[in-house]
Amino acid sequence: MEYVAVLLPSLVVGLLFWFAMKAVFNADKSERQAEARAQAEADARADLGDRPDTGQN
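Request: output the structure for the sequence above.
Response:
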């Protein structure tokens, strides 16, 4: 039982750190995906604006 009392605080802190880092990495991944979607939409809008003139004056 002494071993549990010695190791338990370290395990709890380790688990808290793991959950915190997992949340940070998931947030980063979500942010990168959102940025990629926004960039793709901006590129698509820019491509539509760069179409050559159809000759209708």
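The helical segments are 2-49.
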